[in-house]
Amino acid sequence: MKRTLAGVAATTLAVGGMLVATAAPASAHTPRVKDTCSSLEVNLTQYRGADVTVTIDGTDVADETFDSSWSRTFELDGSAGHAWTVDVDAHDGNQYDWSDSGRTESCTPTAPEQPEGSEVQVGIYLYPKLDASKGAAWENSGEQQLLGTTTLTLPEEELTNDEHWYTELPETDALDDIDLCTGWGIQQDLVRGGPDDYTMPESITYPDGSSMDGHLVDWTHQELSDFGIELPSAEDCATPEVPEVPEPQVVVPQAPAAVEVCGADASDVILPADSAEVTYIRTEQGVLAAPTANHAFGEDLGGYTRTESGEVLFPIEALVPAAEDCALIPGDIAAVCEGDTPHLGYAVALPEGVEVDDDTPLTITFINPDGGENYVAEDQPLEGSLLWPGASDTEPKQWPGWEQQDDGSYVETDGNYAWTRDGVQVLFEVNPQYSTVVDYPPASSQCANPIGVGGADVDVTDTQVEADVPPADAAQADQLPQTGATVGLFAGLAALLVAGGGVLFWLRRRIQH
Questions:
Q1: Which of 400, 505, 502 is nearest to 443 (CA)?
Q2: Pick from 229, 138, 136, 221: which is nearest to 175 by CA?
Q3: For 419, left (φ over 0), alpha (ψ -120 to 50), or beta?
Q4: What pTM, to 2 d.p., does this model score?
Q5: Taking phi first (over 0 means left), then psi (-120 to 50 degrees means alpha), and beta for anything else, what does residue 27 get?
Q6: Could you tell me if 70 and 64 are in contact, meaning their C-beta atoms sit under 8 angstroms apart?
Q7: What's the per-residue H, E or C state across 112-154?
Q8: What tens digit of pLDDT does each residue of 451-479 get?
Q9: Integer Cα distance of 513 and 4 in angstroms
């Protein structure tokens, strides 16, 4: 509650400086609170009007307004402590409000209760019986595992009664993985001392109980069923009779027929028919044979092999033609000049037993060594002549690695299949395939470069020549034999190939139908 001291202000103006000289400064507000175990004393002085509220144990015992001072003593019950609060709301400004709180102590504090008796622990253990037909006992216990402990304070006279034992098993998953048919027992041990004095062992093994020497006070043994655990019946625990298993009949798996077509794989293999003795499965590795019930394989596996995992497998390598048996057979393959343009002359033959449906089954691929786009010529005959990549035998004439300018002259370039000039790998494919490195005609040959470039009698400036320079008769006389559609004249190129670094041959196979 706030009040406006308008009257006081008017009086102050009336008496002038006299009131200012005689009034106490605002800082003279003096609140004091003193509490004891039996009383609370409140003294408020030098105020210019205020409201005071005193609360003890949550109850307002004073809520009053005073002018300049206020004093009160409140008697308290000394047998207990009390919480108190004093709030002062000054009329001459919020800055002079004041609050305090506290709690008194009991005049006669009670000493903490001391437990009667001794601190003890009870440990409960689970163990398999050494003889399931006998009762739970120390002499009939296997290794005991601790399930839990509890700490108690018991007078001496209660240490030997039965009221401190567990009546229910503590929460545990120890029963999840045991065979209840083997017989199980429970042991509980009462030992002196709390956890700070003695640690219960995690396991105990008969007949060694020395870990509890000097601490063990009492013990008991119980059946697992005493704790509400339902045990299986004798019928459930009886060992079932194992029927006699007859000796398996030894059988030999049937070998699958080999496939003689080049390019065949496991999917082309025809499985032997399943029988009452053996079943067959096709895999990428070959044919698996498995005996049926009451049958087994002996030492004679009929051409099959036993793998490390015990499976009986007829390997695919024994069922389809080998790669070397299905490779293309190379004939004469070389770079040749036909007139003033370079060609690839070649001849390949199919392996025995391989047939094709048309006369142009061959695909020839010049493989770019830089990883760029290859040059591919499809639908070619097995023997013939192919215009070299980048070359043209019609006007305007072209040569790989050269580019014709607008004025008809030629200039060397990295484009126009220049990569085929320095020994290029050529791949021949039908279904089998063959690959070789073919050298471009040497610079001295008539078809290597634009007419007039590369010969000993020609002066070339800035690698440009005129396209209309006619070929020299002498150069025509030195040109390599023309092959046309055949390669019967390739023998004349042998010396040139040796001089150009030779030809590297290699084979590989593509599995394809």
A1: 400
A2: 229
A3: alpha
A4: 0.36
A5: alpha
A6: yes
A7: CCCCCCEEEEEEEEEEEECCCCCCCCHHHECCEEEEEEEEEEE
A8: 766 543 333 323 232 333 223 333 333 33
A9: 111
